[in-house]
């Protein structure tokens, strides 16, 4: 039986080495080609509708009136962006990768306009910038959300920026999909694919309790139909693959071929149910000087 992911203390950074974080993050921000960005968009899992509905509800609790203004940090190709636009939000999509933002613009083209007849003002603004320096106005957003991206940010700098762009009592949300490693065959798959961002029970994103309230966390389990060929392609969208040299990639391909074809004996072209779990963390920006409970 393979060992389970090691537990981490609550509020410990998932990537504790700044240089490793920079190197792996650069595989997306600096090195992603347009072809890789399209592959990422096609293969990465979407988010459960219940968590998306809950995320939009937080905008109302933050005091938003009408269309909520949401800043999405590390928006990537817009997988979450499109869901937010579909639900009527105004979205500032912040992403440092030019290739990713090109796909984001193309895939979101039909979802940007106002709902009112005759209005052509875009509800999507794309910012080719980092989460730590978005360029957005002070107190301009009802919600700031990071989906599948919080672990790439500098903890102190991003908290400063989130506090700056959030309106008083605004909501910080962190959303993530994880392969469900409580299932033995999936856990072994993550080790072969070198999928490092696995779920660790009890972990919450590191934030300063003087700036943000205690996290509220919702977890849901679900399954995704995916073929063995798509599993192979999914592995090529991970930072560990993008940052690896060709010999390392060749070893990983061979191991994955053996695991899927021989050990699991999956049928080519036939979808298999791949278990996931998704987690939404939400926190409220504290008013400066307010007591910490």
Assembly annotation? single chain
Spatial order of the strands in the main sheet? Answer: 3-2-1-4-5-7-6
In whole angstroms, the N-to-C terminal distance is 43 Å
CATH architecture of the domain at 18-178 and 198-220 and 277-284: 3-Layer(aba) Sandwich
- Name the poorly predicted regions: 115-120
Number of strands: 7
In CATH terms, what is the fold-level topology of the domain at 18-178 and 198-220 and 277-284? Answer: Rossmann fold
Percent helix among the residues? 25-40%
Helix count, per DSSP? 10
Supply the CATH class of the domain at 18-178 and 198-220 and 277-284: Alpha Beta
Major beta sheet summary: 7 strands, mixed
Write up this protein.
It is a single chain. The chain has helices spanning 18-29, 34-43, 49-61, 79-86, 98-107, 155-165, 184-193, 228-235, 239-242, 246-263, and strands at residues 69-73, 90-94, 124-127, 141-147, 166-179, 216-226, 272-284. It is α/β, with parallel strands linked by helices and 293 residues long. The chain has a domain at 18-178 and 198-220 and 277-284: Vaccinia Virus protein VP39 (Rossmann fold, 3-Layer(aba) Sandwich), CATH 3.40.50. It has a seven-stranded mixed sheet with strand order 3-2-1-4-5-7-6. Helix 2 (34-43) packs across helix 5.
Question: What is this entry, summarized?
Answer:
The protein has 293 residues and is an alpha/beta fold. It has helices spanning 18-29, 34-43, 49-61, 79-86, 98-107, 155-165, 184-193, 228-235, 239-242, 246-263; strands at 69-73, 90-94, 124-127, 141-147, 166-179, 216-226, 272-284.
């Amino acid at each position: 039986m393979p060992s389970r992911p090691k537990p981490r203390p609550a509020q410990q950074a998932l990537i504790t080495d700044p240089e490793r974080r920079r190197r792996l993050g650069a595989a997306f921000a600096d090195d992603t080609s347009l072809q890789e960005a399209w592959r990422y968009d096609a293969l990465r899992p979407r988010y459960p509708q219940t968590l998306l509905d809950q995320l939009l509800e937080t905008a109302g609790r933050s005091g938003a009136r009408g269309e909520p203004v949401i800043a999405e940090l590390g928006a990537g190709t817009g997988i979450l962006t499109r869901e937010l636009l579909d639900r009527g939000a105004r979205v500032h999509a912040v992403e440092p990768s030019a290739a990713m933002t090109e796909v984001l613009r193309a895939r979101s083209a039909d979802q940007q306009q106002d709902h009112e007849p005759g209005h052509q003002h875009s509800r999507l603004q794309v910012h080719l910038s980092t989460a730590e320096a978005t360029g957005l106005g002070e107190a301009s957003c009802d919600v700031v959300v990071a989906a599948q991206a919080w672990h790439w940010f500098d903890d102190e700098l991003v908290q400063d920026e989130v506090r700056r762009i959030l309106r008083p009592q605004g909501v910080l949300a962190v959303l993530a999909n994880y392969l469900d490693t409580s299932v033995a065959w999936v856990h072994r798959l993550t080790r072969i694919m070198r999928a490092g961002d696995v779920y660790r029970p009890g972990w919450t994103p590191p934030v300063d309790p003087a700036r943000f309230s205690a996290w509220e966390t919702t977890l849901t389990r679900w399954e995704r139909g995916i073929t063995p060929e798509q599993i192979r392609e999914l592995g090529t969208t991970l930072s560990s693959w993008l940052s690896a040299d060709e010999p390392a990639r060749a070893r990983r391909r061979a191991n994955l071929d053996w695991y899927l074809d021989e050990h699991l004996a999956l049928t080519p072209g036939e979808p298999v149910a791949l278990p996931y779990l998704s987690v939404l963390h939400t926190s409220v920006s504290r008013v400066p000087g307010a007591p910490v409970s």
